[in-house]
Amino acid sequence: MKKALIMAMSAFIVAGMLTACGNNSGAEVSVAVENCQVRNIFDSVTANGTVEQDTGTYIVSTDIESYCVKNVFVKVGDNVKKGDKICEFDTDNIKQQITDIQKKISDSNSLDEQTVNNKKTELSYLKNSQKVKLDNLKKSITLAEEKYDDVSKKYEEALKNCEDAKKQYESAKAELDNAHTEEEIASCSSKCELYQTQLSMYTQECDTYYSLVSEYKEALNSCKSNYDSTEMETNREIDKLQYEIDSYKSDNSEYTKNLENLNNVLKNSVIYAPSDGVVTSLNVEKGKSDTEKNLATIVNDASKVIHISISDRDVLAVKEGMAVDFYLLSDSSNILKGTVSKINYVKAEKGFDVFITSDDIQDKNIGMLVSCSIITLNEEVNSIRKDAVWRNADNSADYVFVAEPNADGLYVLSEKKVETGIKNNEYIQIMNDEIDNDSMIVVSDTSALTDGMIVEIIDTAIDDVQ
């Protein structure tokens, strides 16, 4: 995996330096690059605290108070351990409701499958019907074309005969005009009458065929128009049905939502103690419904916790359940493990109080000083140095400059929009698939760089990382 260590300078300074040194490489600036690579992005909140007696008060609550209480496992004054059962709600009816809804969803899915199959059958019928209609219309077009071609030929023949007859008539009329004897006049007159009769007949024939040409042309155009409109309409029906098949999804959202709610009730139907301690109040009774939201109160005075205070900024990153690495200041070589168990979101004098539980402190003395590291982020992701990513002018998107080699042995900067993910103070996740460990990303100062700029890469070191 390549990693180029870099330095960046402004275009003006670099240009001056290159001129002073007689550098005619053609590069506008020199930049440094680094490969995007998989890193462990680790972040944490650190604070010092002390080991204290856990005197926390825990309210045991539920969101399913409208269900009948089936069993109560504790009474006021009982000592409980974290995870002990407090009470249990009757879920027999819920289980039946879940079964009924699952059957409705299954039946609906079966019905959906039948609906889709019916639509597929209808689609097949439409396609076959379209083929038959279009085949018949093609035959009508072919027949209309044959009639049109035939009458067009006859019209052309009649037109030619008409022209020939006209020429013969005009020739006979010229001979008549030049005739001198009675015999010549009679002969030419006879020819004129014959050719005039033929011309009249051929003219009438032309008119007849001309009308037929127009009629058959109109019929042919009508057949073609009918074919196009039929094809368009049937295609529209086919496409509509195909879309319905492709996008058909049953609307089981209401069933699914009810099923999710019921499964949540079933999951939370047994109420457990959130901490070790003593049950000091109990607001739940076997056989009763409409139970209060707050079922019981448990006071823990038998175990130890680590108490730390964190800042306003850090409290936004810390959540209950996060892992904690800590050590006693008297024994910094022994790293112990714990969990954030409680956060007091009302700010105290020194900050927001956070409590950490751990089996490793139960044998430690009250008041011992502890250094804690709350792990807020710990993931293996494709990442780049945080300062390589810059925002555009309107602050709406993240970008990097990728250096790509050209034919002159230099590099061309390409401005790439990136999707970013998790980050810490040093690295930021790059989520674009096309940016990987072969991409040379500029990590110099980008303020003087532009898309398409010619650059050279300097101070390059290659590390082979296994």
Describe the structure.
This protein is α+β, with helices and mostly antiparallel strands. It has helices spanning 11-21, 92-178, 182-247, 253-267, 312-315; strands at 29-31, 33-35, 37-54, 57-61, 69-72, 79-80, 85-89, 270-272, 277-282, 294-299, 303-310, 323-328, 331-343, 352-357, 369-385, 390-391, 398-405, 411-418, 420-423, 427-430, 440-442, 454-457. Strands 1, 2, 16, 17, 18, 21 and 22 form a 7-stranded mixed sheet that branches. The protein has a 6-stranded antiparallel barrel with strand order 3-11-14-13-12-15.
- On the 0-100 scale, what is the average pLDDT? 84
Global shape? elongated
Q: What gyration radius follows from the Cα positions, in whole Å?
A: 47 Å
Spatial gap, N to C terminus? 8 Å
- Main sheet record: 7 strands, mixed
Total number of strands: 22
Uncertain segments of ≥5 residues (pLDDT<50)? 1-24, 461-466
Element-by-element helix/strand order = HEEEEEEEHHHEEEEHEEEEEEEEEEE
Helix residue percentage: 25-40%
Strand fraction band?
25-35%
Please state the structural category.
alpha+beta
- Put simply, the count of helices is 5
